[in-house]
């Protein structure tokens, strides 16, 4: 039940930040849609990048309260950061900030994966990937 959620989860759930969507075809936009097969929840995060910095970000999540809070928080954390800084965001930090219980860890995983894949999508568009980066991102992003 909702009563068991931490107040930070409820805050993001009731007042989600940066909900929306960008035009996928915009060259400055990186898009990622990730899903958790076990629960069927789906999360989409999009970043808008200028000169290697995330200048804008939005998300849409069809899922549990923890998934909504994780994606909302993730959008706050990436805004204004360089792509490299965004790649350092760990699901464990998201889960810690939101006090997610072990059973909800995968909800925060979705947010980390969505950020990484959105960056990957952006980099592919701009042909900015070197091969080791590609491997790292693909490994981390696979469910
Ligand atoms: Fe699956 Fe939260 S229960 S994303």
Automatic annotation (TrEMBL):
Required co-factors: [2Fe-2S] cluster
GO biological process terms on file: intracellular iron ion homeostasis; iron-sulfur cluster assembly
Ranges where the NIF system FeS cluster assembly NifU N-terminal domain occurs: 5-127
Keyword set includes Metal-binding: yes
Keyword Membrane recorded: no
Protein family membership: Belongs to the NifU family.
Function: Scaffold protein for the de novo synthesis of iron-sulfur (Fe-S) clusters within mitochondria, which is required for maturation of both mitochondrial and cytoplasmic [2Fe-2S] and [4Fe-4S] proteins.
Localisation per UniProt entry: Mitochondrion matrix
Name assigned to this protein: Iron-sulfur cluster assembly protein
Keywords: 2Fe-2S, Iron, Iron-sulfur, Metal-binding, Mitochondrion, Transit peptide
A single GO molecular function term of this UniProt record: 2 iron, 2 sulfur cluster binding
A single Gene Ontology CC term: mitochondrial matrix
């Amino acid at each position: 039940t909702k009563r068991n959620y931490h107040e930070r989860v409820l805050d993001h759930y009731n007042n989600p930040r940066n909900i929306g969507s960008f035009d996928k075809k915009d060259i400055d936009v990186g898009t990622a849609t990730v899903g958790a097969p076990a629960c069927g929840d789906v999360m989409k995060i999009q970043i808008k990048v200028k000169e290697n910095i995330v200048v804008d970000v939005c998300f849409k999540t069809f899922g549990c309260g923890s998934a909504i809070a994780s994606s909302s928080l993730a959008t706050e954390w990436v805004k204004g950061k360089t792509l490299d800084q965004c790649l350092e965001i760990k699901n464990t930090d998201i889960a810690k900030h939101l006090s997610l219980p072990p059973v909800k860890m995968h909800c925060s995983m979705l947010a980390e994966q969505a950020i990484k894949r959105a960056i990957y999508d952006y980099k592919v568009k701009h042909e900015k990937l070197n091969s080791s980066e590609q491997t790292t991102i693909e490994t981390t992003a696979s469910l």
